[in-house]
């Protein structure tokens, strides 16, 4: 049993697009995939999109144990709604999913330093799940700084980064050298750039090399 945590350099960088594409690619290979969105804020439907991609019959309460109305960091949204986010409950849900699926694809909220509680960040949750991560960032200007800092933060907590995906490429001049520079600075072997797509949730992401090395 294994899993992968899709995190990002921030909010709205394309984590759900990449996570659902990964799920669809694994399902197409005949792999039994579980999905999880531990905390969803802003009343979104990311967890449902993941479920749809996997044709999941798992309970939404298992897939997404915390669903909060305010579009804020999980800790702040929970405080406004007088809710306590229990990390052990999240871990227990992940363990239940991993016990009956070959792979569990987990999507985070925001970036790696987003607080879940006053003591724990998204990166701490990844470390507690003992699974590798895929970092999603924007393809354009500014992504070198954001991506390198994200990777360094994860590596500082001994979290293995198996790939970087730069999302939303438009072919701008600033994007041409970004993957090469990020690879040199992070030494992450697998860096992908994917274009903007008209129907992102029907998009498939080629995971051939990631699967070969990690699954």
UniProtKB/TrEMBL annotation:
Organism placement in taxonomy: Archaea, Methanobacteriati, Methanobacteriota, Stenosarchaea group, Methanomicrobia
Regions crossing the membrane: none
GO BP term, example: biotin biosynthetic process
Listed cofactors: Mg(2+)
Protein name listed in UniProt: ATP-dependent dethiobiotin synthetase BioD
Reaction equation(s) it catalyzes: (7R,8S)-7,8-diammoniononanoate + CO2 + ATP = (4R,5S)-dethiobiotin + ADP + phosphate + 3 H(+)
One term of GO molecular function: ATP binding
InterPro entries the record matches: DTB_synth_BioD, P-loop_NTPase
Function of the molecule: Catalyzes a mechanistically unusual reaction, the ATP-dependent insertion of CO2 between the N7 and N8 nitrogen atoms of 7,8-diaminopelargonic acid (DAPA, also called 7,8-diammoniononanoate) to form a ureido ring.
Organism: Candidatus Argoarchaeum ethanivorans
Binding residue positions for substrate: 41
GO cellular component labels: cytosol
